[in-house]
Design a protein that fits this description.
6-stranded mixed beta sheet, 576 residues, single chain, vWFA_dom_sf, globular, 3-stranded antiparallel beta sheet
């Protein structure tokens, strides 16, 4: 991972993408474009004259992510296809799933026959477009939502993405329409399955996807076979100019309207919610202004809320006084225990009660604990506090609180270093405990990474036999030579299975190469992550899962494999 971007192979680029590309592509609020990065459109940012962007797809981030995936595909089509299958089955990164499905649907490996010299078909090429279609069509956990299916087409229709596809040879270079590949056919199959399975369609309408499904049907040219499809969607039909329509016209269509709740009492609204099994989004959009969202209405909606919904709606539950109810409080606390990201930290800023805020912060710790799993992996965190970190040390602290809070204490070992090392032992691996631990860490002095290892050995820190050791350094990796750092591992008897660097370089300082060179000397996998990636509440757990995926160094000459990549390559290709 220490190579320039243009010299990285497909596997290196893929690992770098997962660790350093956590940007979201779609945003539901206005923002600003600050050097290709989306930021909320606060008054201060708008006044600085940066370009404002409307809600929806943030094109610079989409073009960067799609372009990176396209580069990986060019270098290794099979790796790209297996990564798409992995993302569909193992990842919750929805924007990545959309990008990968779009790429697979338009790339040129389509299962074409390969002929022998006599013209007979010897075999068929791999059909990676089937992977893209299967990503859209799969059911169960991590199935694509109607919004994601529609976004695949919207992404492919974006001029910048269409230009990338044409440059890759996936469409007519002179064509006026953007290449959509198999998206229309896959979208029609998606709709047909839900038309045949009425509970699926009814559930999506109840969940508030009515307009999205209509947009899908229009875009892919879907022709329903029953009037019920139009009826459930409340979609009135007119005869086409050519008179060829046979379903939903002729006066027999009865539309299912979802009227507003105007004129209904609070009790009647609650009864409608329970009887019709309405979702939060659907019900709130129909509430009359004079009633609003009351405690009783919120209680009626609770069965429709997922654990994630409950975490996000914590400020609403608090303001309505519902967290004082023992039963509701118990369900909310249970929802906190299922957190897989750190979004609750953002939610915590909008609550009033200290106890509620602390519970939300604890949910972020749960997400970290879940991400690192219970495998026999021990982690050395080495924190650079030398003089070159003078302006960057506070950012290191913020990042480490996000990462370390919730980490199993028996597997976590922390040390700071300048020219001397010091082992830090938190009184608790909670946000409060880690914050307290780091509060006295200040920058100053020279830089010797090996001093942290010397401190571990002096404190008799050992890694159990059979356990994998991951070494994560936080800093600018300036200091001694890489070979000197590698020799320190040998001298103190520590054998890392993998090494990683969280890059944090202050302005005016140049980063070094100590950690990268040491990993090369030791022949173990190396990866790096920019410190700003940990500002994203979703990226913290993604990065930890990738870095701590039970690495075992498998040496082939001077190189070492990275087990996460092995897992991707072992993923079976999806098929329709």
């Amino acid at each position: 991972m220490n190579l320039p971007a243009e010299d990285r192979g497909a596997a290196d680029r893929l690992l770098h993408l997962v660790l350093n590309s956590g940007a979201h592509l779609w945003h539901n609020r206005p923002g600003v474009d600050q050097n290709g990065e989306w930021l909320p459109a606060t008054p201060g940012r708008v006044q600085r004259g940066v370009r404002r962007v409307a809600p929806g797809l943030f094109v610079p981030a989409a073009a960067h992510l799609y372009g990176t995936l396209l580069d990986i595909y060019r270098l290794d089509p099979e790796l790209a296809a297996r990564f798409a299958s992995y993302a569909a089955t193992e990842s919750d990164w929805r924007d990545l799933q959309v990008c990968l499905s779009a790429l697979m649907l338009v790339q040129h490996r389509t299962g074409a026959p390969v002929h022998d010299d006599d013209g007979s078909v010897a075999f068929h090429d791999d059909d990676y477009r089937a992977v893209g279609a299967a990503m859209m069509l799969r059911l169960g956990q991590r199935a694509m939502t109607p919004k994601q299916v529609l976004r695949v087409a919207q992404l492919l229709e974006t001029p910048e993405i269409a230009a990338l596809n044409r440059s890759a040879g996936f469409g007519d270079p002179a064509g006026r329409k953007p290449p959509l590949g198999r998206w229309p056919a896959a979208a029609r199959r998606w709709l047909a399955h839900r038309e045949r399975n009425t509970p699926l369609l009814d559930g999506l309408v109840t969940a508030g996807y009515k307009e999205t499904i209509k947009a899908l049907a229009r875009k892919c040219g879907y022709k329903p076979t029953t009037e019920r499809f139009f009826s459930v969607l409340g979609w009135a039909q007119k005869q086409a100019a050519g008179g060829h329509r046979t379903v939903g016209v002729g006066g027999t269509l009865v539309l299912q309207r979802r009227e507003r709740f105007d004129g209904l009492t609070e009790a009647e609204i609650c009864e409608r919610i329970v009887t019709e099994k309405l979702s939060f989004k659907d019900a709130v959009g129909r509430l009359p202004a004079g009633v609003g969202l009351t405690p009783a209405i919120m209680v009626a909606l609770l069965p429709s809320l997922s654990d994630q919904d409950l975490r996000i709606l914590t400020p609403t539950l608090e303001s309505l006084g519902l967290l004082a109810d023992a039963e509701i409080r118990a369900r909310w606390e249970q929802a906190l225990l299922t957190a897989t990201d750190q979004r609750s930290l953002n939610v915590a800023r909008n609550v009033r009660g200290a106890a509620v805020r602390e519970a939300l912060e604890a949910a972020a710790e749960v997400a970290v604990s879940t991400a690192v799993g219970d495998e026999d992996v021990h982690v050395f965190f080495l924190i650079d506090k030398s003089g070159s970190m003078q302006g960057a040390i506070e950012k290191s602290k913020e990042t480490l609180v996000r990462i370390l809070a919730g980490f199993p204490p028996e597997r976590l070992h922390i040390a700071t270093f300048d020219t001397m090392g010091r082992v830090l032992r938190p009184k608790a691996t909670s946000r409060a405990g880690i914050t307290h631990l780091l509060s006295v860490v200040n920058a100053g002095g020279g830089t010797v990474h090996g001093a942290a290892l010397r401190a571990f050995r002096a404190e008799k820190v050992d890694v159990p036999d059979g356990a994998a050791l991951i070494v994560i350094v936080v800093g600018d990796e300036a200091g001694e030579s890489g070979s000197g750092f590698a020799d320190a591992f040998r001298e103190y008897g520590y054998r890392p299975a993998a090494m990683a660097l969280i890059v944090n370089v202050d302005r005016g300082w140049e980063r070094g190469s100590t950690v990268r060179d040491a990993s090369a000397d030791l022949g173990v996998p190396f990866s790096e992550v920019e410190v700003r990636q940990f500002d994203d509440p979703y990226q913290v757990t993604r990065v930890l899962k990738t870095l701590l995926d039970a690495p075992v160094a498998v040496r082939v000459g001077p190189a070492a494999s990275y087990p996460w990549l092995d897992k991707v390559l072992a993923t079976p290709l999806l098929a329709t």
